[in-house]
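thread: overnight batch results

M.L. [08:02]
morning all. the overnight job finished for the chain we discussed friday. pasting input first so we're all looking at the same thing
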Amino acid sequence: MGLREVKFELKKLDNETLIKHISELYKKYKPVKEYFDFYFNPNEDEILNQYKDKVRDGFFPKGGDRLRLSISRKAINDFKKLGTSKESLADLLLYYVECGVEFTNEFGDIDENFYTSVENTYDTALELMENENILSKFKDRALEIVNETENIGWGFHDYLGDLYYEYYK
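M.L. [08:03]
and the structure it wrote out:
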């Protein structure tokens, strides 16, 4: 069944039945709950901080578990679905990169996939900020990321530096 068919069927339902179904979705599915919580109470700073915690948990999990970038990437994808501002999304993307740099500086060299993920996220953040005309708002943070990678090898520092100077001419 496609979206058009679902909409057609939903139009047949009365308000009380719709409310019942939406309430069930709200109770059963955490993403639906988060969506409606944000929709009805759009405290963007609060939700951004919650998602920053989720991103950080992927890099620095509680209880000494291992690095799990999938948790951090999922947090970013879930955050996008909430419909927050592009500025908050850029903030979260930069935070992911900051966590990646901090992790590397704390634990040493990681693997190529790790660096590629962090580099791609940095590029995505800078591109988003350019498209939204908010590069100037994040200039200091973007440069600090590059500065913090100075002692990291594998071309990581050079690549992030090249990206920085590509966007901040």
